[in-house]
Amino acid sequence: MSFATSFIKLPGLSNQVDISDFEDLLELFPTPCLLIDSQSWRIRAANDKATTLTLFSFDELAALDIHQLLPDLQNHTSVSHNKSELIIEQITLIKRDQTQQSIHFHLHPLYSRRKWLIAEITPSETIYLKQVENQRHSQIWQILSAWELAYQANDLQTMLDSILVAVHDLTGASSLAIYHADGKEFILNRLAQFGSANHFPEKLPFEELVHLRTTFLWKKGTPPASTLQQIASNTEISILLSEPIGEGNATTGLLILAGSEDLYPDLQPDHIHTMAQLIGATLEKHFQSQTIQSSLEKTTRQVFTFQKLYERIKEGAIFLTHDQRIINLNSQTELTLGYTNQEAHGLHLGKILVSDRNLNSIMKLVEQGTSAGKIDRVRLFHRSGNSFIAEIEIFPINYQGTFLGSLIIIRNKDEEEATKANIKLLEQKAFLGEFHRDFSHEVRNPINNIYFGLQVMERNLPAEHANQDTIARIKQDLDRMAKLMDTILSFSKITHQEMIAINLGDLVQRVLFQFSPKCEQWNIKQHIQIDPDLPEIRGNRHSLEQVFINLIDNAIKVMKDTGGMLAVKIQKTSTEGKEDVIEASITDSGLGIPGEEKPHIFHPFHSTSENGTGLGLVISKKIIDMHKGSIDFESFLGGTIFHVRLPIYKSIP
Questions:
Q1: Model-level pTM?
Q2: Which fold has domain 153-287?
Q3: What is the DSSP letter of 395?
Q4: Residues 6 or more apart from 383 whose CB is under 8 A from it?
Q5: Does the pLDDT value for residue 624 go beyond 70?
């Protein structure tokens, strides 16, 4: 211990000082101290610690010269001449029994009383132990800081590994391990280790917690009382300390320290206990965080699933607070009422749900009870002012007996009724299809009979008979009626027929070949352009031949009187946003389709030809639709182009 000069001045003393006053003051110092006369270097007073160290009594010390205690002090000339402060780190002290001890010597001159010197004579071992203690305290603080950083780590393994390093530095143990109880499998799992991996198994029986439920210090030579101690007895381990993690009956694991030498001597039992408690708190924090994280992930998944279902339900849905403030609208409600979720949030329900009826009464009933309220038919108004018929259901949301809010479901009955009307229309069309088929069959028989009768009459009458012209006109009308019946029957028979791979270019060329005589007869030139590397399509050959026979026949007929050009182009092409298709274009150089006729060109029984049935293009469109293709046209003064597009074979599912 060193003393600054300002703390040892005695301003209240006169020049004649009683030695007993110094003796009382010396007893206040924590180290062995001597009062020395600076003139004679004789010892004039000492405290009890000095007598204990030197083995001399007070009177014996008072008769000695300081050099008798410290012979080597003669080598330090500054003591003899300067009478200044002097520190000697190590010097030999001669005790009364002539034994020697190394000490630390610190000489303090009393500047206000220059006659006197105070000498501290502290054993070097005491100084060393004090330094070790200070270093130990500093090390402990550094380790605790490292522990704190480890405690903040997110990864459990990193956290525990860092903690074991800190425990090693605190205790001196060469091998450490942390075990944690698995309540499901009733086993102890090793979570972390430091040092040799052979000392501690990965798993221990659950009974180990019973055997080591208190702090247990085992040393080699002692009979083992547990599995760990049995393992240690067969290794170089000479000491094994186990500390339970947790309190009382709530023990959740073990902290194990082992080594071939003793642990640090200043290590106390409560230090180990505190470490185990800190590890327990660390594990508890981790597993609680893990549980919270798992619960949060589960809740997040549930919310995500609910949100997806909420957005995809066909009905409108509105979540309300207990005072009918809007929390959320789904996308269907946005479409139904015309308000976005962002606009509606926080508004009172009455601001967006406008009805021809008062909804407050049913809302109050829902708030008071646990049953849902329902209104079968109510007229609601869209933001634009348009109205629609809807069905409303209101469900209360209660938690532990407290009303939190409600969920409103809105079903647009207009759409439902429109769907029902469409279904009814489809049913009627199906009935008409069957009726047309039956009607065609029934009419064909009388037509055939009449036609046969006319043929008999025609043969029995002379060629120049006046009724021959009448019979010819009737037969022509019967032919037209039979053709109409065949068309109606064909229209009703179009279904998913047998599909095969077809080269559309070859199919159209065969159809064109059939019309070659007519083209020559009516002075119609053909221009054919077909891609030689055309991919195949998948279709029904007979149905597709019927489509192109109809289109080419129509094109030729419009040029019958004037002649012209029939152009056919078949190629692979792309449509925007879709896969590649095969496109067939049929172009004529006729007068074009009048503007007022264009919207009705694919309607049944609508024909621009005098003798047409009005079903050819309707049947063609139905066949192309069946093949998942498309047909359209463009017409202008001087010609018409029909475009047929069919999927390539590989793109058909």
A1: 0.40
A2: Beta-Lactamase (3.30.450)
A3: E
A4: 337, 338, 339, 352
A5: yes
